[in-house]
Amino acid sequence: MFSMHIDTALSWRGGQNQVLLTVRGLQARKHQTTLVAHPAGELRHRAEKDVAVIPLVPRHELDLKIAWKLSRLIRKLRPDIVHAHDPHAVAIAALALLLGAPKPRPFLMASRRVDFHLKKNIFSRWKYKQVDGFVCASNAIREMLIGDGFPADRACLVHDGIDIQQLEAARPVDLHQELCLPKNALIVGNVAALVPHKGHRYLIDAMPSVLDKIPEARLVIVGQGQLESALRAQIKALNLET
Questions:
Q1: Up-side HSE of residue 83: CA atoms within 13 Å toward CB?
Q2: Contact 141, 114 (CB under 8 A)
Q3: Are 10 and 152 in contact (CB under 8 A)?
Q4: What is the DSSP letter of 171?
Q5: CB within 8 Å of 103: residues ≥ 6 apart
Q6: Pairing of strands 133-136, 107-112
Q7: Reading across the β-sheet that carries 32-37, which strands appear in turn?
Q8: What share of the chain is helix, strand, coil (3-state, %, to 5)?
Q9: Which domains does the chain have, with CATH numbers?
């Protein structure tokens, strides 16, 4: 089985980690794969040492020039599956297959890792109609897709995975020492992009109640994103700075 995986992100987040784990896992099982990724993206940088990477970056969802290049690439390589790992990748893959696809046409698969409703604009509805199957990271996401009208028999549940060996090989870290926290402090940790749907504001709002019952508790948030300034201001307003 030959699969082509497409991810358009510049950043490194959970989705990009899953792409790399998926491709490496397929290779370990002797499946042929190729990865189409942003030339300046962190995914390409991390994947290049052991994965065949083709640099390609759409300027926007309707980038016909890039879609044509991808179409030519698909016709040349003739993958059995084209797996789009983000919404822009779905758009470019759908356009590429419209502009020209080998026969038989590759199966277009899309990953869905967020519990957002599918957009209702004309182009969004069109591109998702081209998808032959969704890989959903949770049952809640799958149920949302079905509620949005996607056929249940074409939406499968596959939970995100982790690399156990990588975790076992990692050097243990004493967070109390690293962050100069009291030895008896109960650490509440959060690792996620600082974006609205991750819900950091609710966690921060809850901390005063936690501290009323467990005064030695400390909240440690690790991440980057658009809400960093707003979350810092919220922490300051609640007198939670350490």
A1: 21
A2: yes
A3: no
A4: P
A5: none
A6: parallel
A7: 53-55, 32-37, 2-7, 81-84, 107-112, 133-136, 155-157
A8: 45, 15, 40
A9: 2-164 (3.40.50.2000), 172-237 (3.40.50.2000)
Residue showing tokens 């962190």: 42
Token pair, residue 97, equals 């297959």
Digits of tens for pLDDT over the chain (242 positions)? 999 999 999 989 999 999 999 999 999 999 999 999 999 999 999 998 899 899 998 988 899 999 999 999 999 999 999 999 999 999 999 999 999 999 999 999 999 998 889 988 999 999 999 999 999 999 999 999 999 999 999 999 999 998 888 888 888 889 899 999 998 999 999 999 999 989 999 999 999 999 999 999 999 999 989 999 999 999 999 999 87
The CA distance from 70 to 4, in Å, is 11
| Tokens representing residue 39 in the block | 């030339």
Rounded CA-CA distance 238/211 in Å is 12
Q: Which helix (H) or strand (E) holds 187?
A: strand 187-191
- What tokens appear for 92 in the block? 């470019």
List pLDDT tens digits, range 75-120.
999 999 999 999 999 999 999 999 999 999 999 999 999 888 998 8
